[in-house]
Specification:
- 80% of the residues lie in helices and 0% in strands.
- The protein has 12 helices and no strands.
């Protein structure tokens, strides 16, 4: 029995999932946060809760490619500052998934994404981005990192939607394009791998889902190469606008689904 029969997929539905997987690769190496569109496609084609477990290994494949591409540009002090708060968010998100239905999940994540986009636009109008992350050691910077960390952990556990939240944090902290991509690549590889036992424990990952993943991962690779090609042709201001726009689109899709 092939994967299309196993999941009762039509040819068009499989094509949509393949496109979403390609978009995952593109988002990981070009416009972080754009994979919220992939999230919406997966949730539309597959059962909503099951879609999060199926999407996770596809995201990890994209994370590996992003790390291989941008590993020299990661800012590790920022990562170490975020991880404890993210861990709290993942645990809270796991507990949330135990009782929340799909409607509550979609509404909660959509509101958070739109709020984060609004905050970032406001901050970007107040000051231009700096070459290095700012305020990392100040009290305000620590509070901001913890807040975004918890939100990022929660949203990535509940709906694999942590990308836009962390994108907003990295932009607000003043990261330039390559530092942004390198830091987010390592961040999501580590966080997404750590989510595997939680997702398996909730029954979101099993042999059937991994069989479909094995097919879809093939489409992540050309998406990653396309993203690598595109990122060198996008200037910093356009890059930031694309990240924010992808976040807004993803938030609206979740609210209107």
């Amino acid at each position: 029995m092939d994967t299309m029969t196993l999941w009762h997929l039509t040819g068009w539905e499989f094509a949509a999932l393949a496109f979403a997987a390609l978009l995952v690769g593109f988002s990981k190496t070009a416009v972080s946060g754009a994979n919220t569109v992939s999230l919406a496609i997966f949730a539309a084609v597959l059962p909503a809760r099951a879609s999060t477990g199926i999407l996770l290994p596809v995201l990890i494949a994209g994370d590996v490619l992003a790390v291989l591409t941008y590993r020299r540009h990661a800012h590790w002090p920022t990562l170490w500052r975020l991880f404890p708060a993210v861990g709290v968010g993942v645990v809270v998100g796991t507990l949330f998934l135990v009782w929340a239905d799909d409607a509550v999940v979609r509404t909660s994540i959509g509101v958070i994404l739109l709020f984060m986009a609004g905050v970032t636009v406001w901050r970007r109008r107040r000051a231009d981005a700096a070459e290095q992350p700012d305020e990392l050691t100040s009290r305000t910077g620590r509070v901001k990192a913890r807040s975004y960390g918890v939100l990022g952990g929660f949203t990535t556990m509940v709906a694999n939607a942590g990308g836009p939240v962390m994108s907003m944090y990295l932009l607000s902290a003043g990261f330039r394009k390559l530092g942004f991509l390198g830091t987010s690549a390592f961040f999501f590889l580590i966080v997404n791998v750590s989510k595997l036992p939680f997702s398996a424990g909730l029954g979101l990952i099993d042999g059937h889902s991994l069989l479909l993943d094995a097919v879809l991962v093939v489409f992540v690779v050309p998406g990653a190469f396309l993203g690598k090609w595109a990122v060198n042709r996008v200037n910093q201001r356009l890059f930031e606008r694309l990240v924010i726009a992808a976040t807004v689109v993803g938030g609206l899709q979740l609210l209107l689904a």
